[in-house]
Amino acid sequence: MPDAREPIGNIPTPDSSTPSEAVPATPSFSVHNVFLGRDGLRAGWSLLLYAVLIVVLNAGSGLLIQEVHLHRVAKTHAGAAAQAGSQQAEAGDSAATGSGKVMPPKVALVGEGVAFLCAAVATWVMAKIERRPNATFGLGRRHGLRTFLAGLGWGVALLSLLILSLRVTGLLVFDARLLFGRSALRYGAVWFAAFLLVGLFEEYFFRGYLQFTLARGLSGIYGWFGAPVNDTLGFWTSAVLLSFGFGFTHKGNAGESPIGLLSAGIIGVVFCLSLWRTGSLWWAIGFHAAWDWAQSFLYGVADSGTMVEGHLFSTHPVGRPILSGGLTGPEGSIFILPIVALTTGVIVFTLRNGRANRLGRDAQPELRAELLHGSPDDARQPRLHLDLP
């Protein structure tokens, strides 16, 4: 009878003298994983660096402006302009805003110009750090002029439709024309430049780098939960958060109303639709600039509660503020809501769905690679690499 301790058949017995196979080691923690992901620098760190850059650049520019006393110059200029202005202009402004205070062009040009410069520099620095082309963040040159001009046209047209609606219902009264000849041309040109800077800054800041990077981070979070369209969800979640954040920044404006804040947030989401379809901010920039210019200069109504110096017509609202807009201006009227819906239709039916800025899985693979990692020319350059332990 065989011994139970002896091997049976051809079954080998382990040889204590032979070393056993090494058990695979658990991957060690790497600091690289904290800072870097599959798309380079993680979105959270990118947003933090961008915020630091914005704070530093704004602080530096604020000190520079104080140094050259631009605030005092603007105040003096505003006082002189108010004294030289006609009684009709003062009456029109007071009826619309509840005060005789107006914004001079220099304040808008300097303030918005510096703000846009800070956003542009911060975005350029982050683009270099992340090895992405600047066009990724919405200011690409492809069809830029054409879409910008289309936005300009639709901005004036739809704002004019809103003004016409208020006029024919008796909610807005035109008092008089205030500017003629060279004065009208000069103020019209200066205010167009100022509102172009407004459009550039607000669109590039809220729907440029912030929109792209927050969407990238949220897409990763949705991906962890296995969402099938995580990139689409990331884009639109970011769009809603930033757009209503943009609307909330108007809360400090004199005469702003709840409907005005709501409409600012909704139109921000609509502008994101133009970004989604074209991959560019140029349509939104054109629309934004033309809309504000037509409100403030052309028709002389309040823009989020703010009146400007040197507008073509003097007007005043009549009736309940929820209908006329009151001190807020036309954006505070419920008539703004169908105009926003019409703007959405204009984007859907007039802008080609190029999806050039989408990170969705349904985008073309080569397009997605260019957006995430740069253009083919940039591909020859090394990606961001941090020699961390």
Question: Any low-confidence stretches, pLDDT <50, length ≥5?
Answer: 1-14, 84-100, 356-389
How much beta, percentage-wise?
under 5%
Spatial ordering of strands, largest sheet: 1-2
Number of helices, where a helix is a run of at least 4 consecutive DSSP H or I residues: 14
Can you tell me the number of structural domains? 1
Mean pLDDT metric = 79
Major sheet details: 2 strands, antiparallel
| Euclidean distance between termini CA atoms | 63 Å
Radius of gyration: 28 Å
Helical residue percent band: 55-70%
Secondary-structure element order, as H and E?
HEEHHHHHEHHHHEHHHH
Shape: globular
Number of strands: 4
Question: What keywords describe this structure?
Answer:
mainly alpha; two-stranded antiparallel sheet; disordered N terminus; 4 strands; 389 residues; single chain; two-stranded antiparallel ribbon
Can you walk through the features of this model?
There is one protein chain. This protein has 389 residues and is mostly helical. The protein is 62% helix and 4% strand. It has one domain (35-374). The protein has 14 helices and 4 strands. The strands form 2 sheets. Strands 1-2 form a two-stranded antiparallel ribbon. It has a two-stranded antiparallel sheet with strand order 3-4. Mean pLDDT is 79; it is low at 1-14, 84-100 and 356-389.
